[in-house]
């Protein structure tokens, strides 16, 4: 029972972590809460669904297709809705992000309709594997595996490549890195591309897991992933992974011990409690403000 | 008096009346948030939670007691303010986006609480009996909206308001100047929530049906958009922002299914072209004085 719930929790948590990474990277660089991020996750799920149902590709190709599509979309959103607002008040950019979010979810409502769509049968062969007392489905292995590969890939890009170095520098100090000859616009576009690609992958995985893709799936998932990013300490990449896993596991355990009607409150209760004890999240840096 | 008011309200086209009442309630809510976010600079993403606390409190007061509606609204406002102060006490220590996400989390918790709260019918929602008053509800809404405008204008120019603005501009400096920042922040939070509670009470009795799901994240965002669109910290801005956004979905109704699509795009374009809001950085009194041909004072 315990092991079973733990696996369920880790599977859900890795998806939260994938989405949370996008929030945390964007926040780390331009301190914007990108509220449209949840909708990118939703669009990714729909693109994956379309690819699987109409082009009959397998799930892995669908994930890659959705990632590429959302990458372009993320960069375009930044270009249209945020770039002009980079120098103005952060709240204006926040409202703009909310506008994008409303736009995308109503667009999805118009195009795909109000009811949830499922993946066609046999999109991914589901088998149960017995490990001790737990039934682990191949789906859960797929989710945990794909998330782990993507997160390692991200870690590699951020730590080992030149553009990753530029990203870290920009999030450390935006103005100085611009002075040092880093093309910050390119770094920001790249960050949006990376974050959106991860969210898209998360979208397809969630779509396959729950076998339901709907226009409003982005809102709650986005909010929880954002909560995960803040829980881990916003701006910190390992923090987002940790926060996502923690929220996923605690949510699944909360439901398992009988609080299913409080499901959506569990994540936020943990978040509020942690913030009260550690005001900058679990792995967030303590910021000393100078006057 | 009551007859006259009733016939006055009755003479307005019901559809128009609905829009005007929505605008009135939105003004009360937006001005409340304007105190918290606009004046004090504390980003709150959970204003709808206080609206829902107000709505449910007010509805329960009407159901359980025979208090006249004015007293009901007063009780509602005070209860909401007390809850806000109790919440604000721990969470206002957080700054910036940590505070924002905490208010968001709190709002979700409140929503889930009411969705599971037996006395208010859980997820079925609550049917609110008519308010105990002879004056029609729209008149109440408009009077309260005007009172709210007057109140916030006064607050803005008072010692209290100046302290709030000092906190917004630089919290550390304000602290160094001897302003008790924690106390002022909690008071501002309580005042804003007081207004949100009253707005919620009016909303409950005007619609006569409330459901916890109506007060979700999107409602909070709606109110925030009104404040930011109008221009943070500006009372006329909040009034214009709430009038535009509360009536926009109605005026956009001719586009039927494209309505929310256009609304979202509108938010983006308004922000890109007026990043400080419609009236941000515009001194309305000065403009008015100029318009009637007098030089503004102090220039």
TrEMBL record, chain A:
Tell me which Pfam families the record gives: BPD_transp_2 (PF02653)
Task: Fetch the InterPro entries from UniProt.
Answer: ABC_transp_permease, BCAA_transport_permease
Write the record's keywords in alphabetical order, separated by commas. Answer: Amino-acid transport, Cell inner membrane, Cell membrane, Membrane, Transmembrane, Transmembrane helix, Transport
Q: Which domain of life is it from?
A: Bacteria
Q: Which residues cross the membrane?
A: 6-26, 38-55, 61-81, 93-116, 136-158, 187-209, 265-284
Transmembrane helix: present as a keyword of the record? yes
**Classification via CDD domains:** TM_PBP1_LivH_like
Tell whether Transport is among the UniProt keywords: yes
Membrane topology term reads:
Multi-pass membrane protein
* Cellular location(s): Cell membrane
Family assignment from sequence similarity: Belongs to the binding-protein-dependent transport system permease family. LivHM subfamily.
Protein name, please?
A: Branched-chain amino acid ABC transporter permease
The organism encoding this protein is Geomonas diazotrophica
Q: What is the lineage of its organism?
A: Bacteria, Pseudomonadati, Thermodesulfobacteriota, Desulfuromonadia, Geobacterales
